[in-house]
Each structure stands twice: as C-alpha cells, then as structure tokens.
Queue: 2 jobs
Job 1
Amino acid sequence: MRPPPPLTLQCVPSRAWRGGCTGVGAAAGLALAGWLAAQQEWALPAQVGLAGALALVGVMLGRRAAGPWHAVALRWDGRDWHVDDVPGGLQVMLDFGRWLLLLRHRPRAGGGKRWLALSFAREAGGQRALRAALYSRPPEATPDLQPHVRAPDRATD
C-alpha cells in the first residue's frame, strides 16, 4: 500500500466550534458566579457585577480553548504533519463527515497540544486528500514493498 501524496491546505477553523467553546466558557463563568452568589449574601448589583466579570473570563478562556481563529496552513510532506510550519503529529479525535476535530502534538518543537476544528462546506478534493493522509498508515509502519517477480516455471522437454 502506498502512502498518500504530499498535501498542502489552508484550513479555516469551524465557526460552530468557536461559538460553542465561547458559549460553554460563558456558561461556566455564570455558573461559578451563581454558586459564589449563593454562598455569600451580597446585594444584587454585586452579584450582577460578579456574574459579568466571571462570564467575561469564561468567554476569554473558551476562546483560547477553541484554538486558532485564523486560517491554518496544514501540510503533509509524506512523513510528517506541519501546522503553520511547525512539525508534529496529528490525531483525529472526532470525525462527523463535514466536521473534523484534530489534536496536534508537537513532540519535537516543545510546547503543548493544539486543537484544530475544521469544517467543510461541501465535498471537495482537499477534504478527500486530507482524509486519505489522516487515515493512512504512518510511513514507519508501511513496509518497503518491492514487487517480487518470479519467473514462471518452465517445463523442460
């Protein structure tokens, strides 16, 4: 089996993913504010101020967790994945057809993991090529297949 050919794509993160992470962050901030307000008997203006501040902190943390908000250069060179020219591993975490959630590891470049949520408006060649590269065997696991040609057995007269 041959490895997939090299691939270069400009990927725009999913708006639904970004909005969902932002909404979850805001909800978590409001829940924390509600819990704190229930523990302390503060006046209503103090509770509203606390809820606003914690919701804003939750939104900022949700935006950070959502990953990049700009287009990402995704490249497969036949051996390694490169996200914005930083090499590392790429792992499929969720695959919902049009939506992909990928986790990017950077073993050689220090630093943490990075989430990439990608969406595709319709079936495209780039999506097919990306899936072929994502789901293929790593090059180390692919044996070097050389066709073994055997001469046909000849009957001697």
Note: The CA atoms of residues 1 and 142 lie 7 Å apart.
Job 2
Amino acid sequence: MIKICSACNSTWAGGRICEDCGAELHDPYERDAGEKMPKNIWGYIRLQYGARRGMLVRVLAFLMVPVVFGLIAREAVLLNGAWVAVGLFTAAVAAFATWLFIYWAAGKAVRVWVLRKGQLQKRKMARALLKRAMPGSRS
C-alpha cells in the first residue's frame, strides 16, 4: 500500500510517519484524500507504478537469457563437429537478442503507460527524480 506525506510529498510503502520530515502519512485512497493530498499526486503515483512495471519486465528479460540460451544450447551440443561451436554461438546471440528486445520493449511500455497516459513530461520527471536522489535537497 502506498502512503504519501502531505508535507513533503514523499511516497512510502506503508508506515505512519514520514521518515523525511516526520509528518503523518496518508493513504491516497481514503475518502478525504482530496483535501490532504496535492492535486498532482495521481500523476506521481502513476509514474511510480509505471516505473515498477518496467523494472519487473526488465527482470523478466534477465531471467529469459539463461532459458533461451539453455534451450538452444541443448540442441546445439547434439550437432556434429564444428557445428557445436556455431550452435553455441547462435544460442548466445539469441539469448542476447531476447534480452535486448524485452529490455527495449519495457522502456517503450513505460513511456506509453506513464508519460503519455499521465501526460507527464520527461524533463519534469527527470528533474523530480534527480531532486529526490540528491542528498540535502529535501527540506
């Protein structure tokens, strides 16, 4: 469950008190959340969930590499002579191409899910993420 600090707009995965400023955390799905939350908070929540989706799909890409390599390499070792090396090389190329395609598709999907759907601008998103990552930038 996502919780949001109404004082500094930090998001947390639960809890009662913001670790950044010490204010009370609020659930954005409460009945009176509109009074406690900033107006643009739903775009930020969409950004967070879209980024998480992208990360999960990219983890899938890393997990697919050994599967694709193993399936093709298993057949390649049954070949005769120098074809074994060609088969193993093909397995490695296919595994890398699978990783590259899924990784690229995850980036495209995040852009569609988050940036276009939420009408967020890349420049604003990058500035917000950079500000959040820099120590001492929170008040």
Note: The first strand starts at residue 3 and ends at 5.
